[in-house]
Design a protein that fits this description.
With about 120 residues, this protein is mainly α. It has helices at about 5-10, 15-20, 30-40, 45, 60-75, 85-110, and strands spanning about 80, 85. The chain has 2 domains: about 5-45, Orthogonal Bundle (434 Repressor (Amino-terminal Domain)), CATH 1.10.260.40; about 60-110. It is built from 6 helices and 2 strands.
């Protein structure tokens, strides 16, 4: 897609697209939402938090858990009810997610009879 084509889809000038590409300007939330829709990715992808994945693709629950725990571990300034999380707090949350995943996996195996 050319800068002109993207600019037309976004309703902005081609030079603005060029500035985004050169990191001389950042898109506002309205433009970011349009970019996500055009390219079929999440806002997290555009701001560097998530791998490029179409929002409508099928995913395993374990992939969602993995992405969330990775983001939780790396996110700067993360808070819970306005209180900054310590590294220990983050680890406890990650461990809780892992426990939930293990319970869900065991229940799924029991329901489906899967021996994996």
């Amino acid at each position: 897609m050319t800068q002109l084509q993207l600019a037309d889809k976004l309703g902005i000038s081609p030079s603005a697209v060029g500035m985004y590409e050169q990191n001389r300007r950042e898109p506002d939330s309205r433009i970011l939402n349009k970019l996500c829709a055009i390219f079929g990715v999440s806002g997290d992808y555009f701001i560097g938090y998530a791998p490029k994945q179409p929002m409508n693709r099928q995913m395993e629950v374990s992939e969602v858990f993995d992405e969330f725990t990775d983001r939780l571990a790396m996110q700067e300034g993360l808070m819970f009810d306005g209180i900054p999380l310590s590294d220990e707090d983050r680890q406890k949350i990650i461990e809780a997610i892992q426990v939930v995943e293990a319970i869900a996996r065991k229940q799924h195996k029991n329901v489906t009879g899967d021996k994996k």
